[in-house]
Design a protein that fits this description.
Number of strands: 0
Order of helices and strands: HHHHHHH
Structural class: mainly alpha
Largest sheet: none
Strand content: under 5%
Radius of gyration: 24 Å
Amino acid sequence: MAQGCLKCLKYTMCFANFLCFMCGVAVLSFGVYMMVTFRMAALTPTLASFNTSNMLLISGIVITCVSFLGFLGALKENRCLLLTFFLLLFLLMLVELTAACLLLMYEGEIGNMVKDDLNKGLVKAKGKTGNSTDVMSEWDFLQVKLGCCGVTNQTDWGEKVPDSCCVNNCKTLPVQYSEKGCLDMIRNLFEENFLTTGISVIVLCIIEVLGMCFAMTLFCHISRSGLGYKL
């Protein structure tokens, strides 16, 4: 009976890690697509390395590597791979919880940093530094998507307000611009998705704890069976 339960646990772990591996490949592919088609360097020059595409790439690589270790360790009943899988999941959970705590503790400082970075991107978009063609396309996308204008309002653009700020057709008089700034809209977007993000982090931590429990159960069984380094 015990052997049957352990075999069921083994193949369940293999199946779950295979699904995670496929999800990691999908996330990695989407990150590459985002990097090729849309760049955030113009919007946030300083924070460009922390944009969505880079985060997706890093997440995809981590998910594929960790899930592959778990899959191979469970399939081959290898103690070294299972222990490595356990430790990596534990470290990932610590990193996630630490990042969540830091975001809550330094929410104001992060908001000011994003504001300063958006202002730098706006200066670049106005053509004062560098080539503003690609820069403007990214700001136009953001302003149309969020229905905002500038960092705080349309006055940030000075005399040359882009058409993407118009509420109605810019050729129709009087021209009406979006009154809300993109910084407030981004902040509202994060606040609206705060609960969803928190629930996602909790669910992810629960999945990681279950993965660690499964891995340690198999590890202990293999140790007692004398199959410590079976390949």
